[in-house]
Amino acid sequence: MFLLTIFFSFAFSEGLCIKEVHNPYSEVYLSYVFRKNVEKLVLESGYKIYCGEGSKEIKPEVELFKEHPIAYTPQQRVSAYNLELRVSLTLDGKKKSFSVFVPYTQQGGMVGDLPRRKAIEEAFRIIYIDMLEFIKMR
């Protein structure tokens, strides 16, 4: 019975079409994580992902992506950053921005950009609930 209820709730739910992430920055991983989070938000809010007649559009946009150095090594190299991120969602003509600061450390050349990627993921974890509330209110 429970599975039948879930099936019908998805079968008759309204469709939301997710547009391409507008990202003016060269950080490709940021677009990837943003898109995956929007897909999860749409499904969790009770919509289905559907681009067709009668579906609403949701437009994700990266407004700001900056890294501020906050700590230096004795050799004058940056070892820690504050990641500043501001993204927005537009749904039904209403636009809402979400911003966050996440600190992270760059230990050395051996780990590449993994700390930055983890900081991007953490930023979306922090603003996830606010974005979910925005979508559910529409």
Structure description:
The protein is α/β, with parallel strands linked by helices. It has one domain: 3-Layer(aba) Sandwich (Rossmann fold). The chain is 36% helix and 36% strand. The chain contains 3 helices and 5 strands; from the N terminus they run H-E-H-E-E-E-E-H. The protein has a 5-stranded mixed β-sheet with strand order 2-1-3-4-5, with helices on one face. A hairpin with a 5-residue loop joins strand 3 (56-72) and strand 4 (78-91). The longest helix is centred in the last third of the chain and has 23 residues, at 114-136. The protein is elongated. The model has no long low-confidence stretch (mean pLDDT 89).
How would the global form be characterised? elongated
Whole-number count of domains: 1
Sequence stretches where pLDDT stays below 50 over 5 or more residues = none
Number of strands: 5
CATH topology: Rossmann fold
Largest sheet: 5 strands, mixed
Rg on CA atoms, Å = 18 Å
Strand order of the largest sheet: 2-1-3-4-5
Strand fraction equals 35-45%
SS class:
alpha/beta
Would you identify the CATH H-level superfamily?
ABC-type transport auxiliary lipoprotein component
Proportion of residues in helical segments: 25-40%
Kindly provide the name of the CATH class: Alpha Beta
- Would you identify the CATH architecture? 3-Layer(aba) Sandwich
Distance between the termini: 29 Å
Mean of the pLDDT scores? Answer: 89
Could you spell the SSE succession in H and E letters? HEHEEEEH
H/I helix tally: 3
Protein name: DUF4136 domain-containing protein
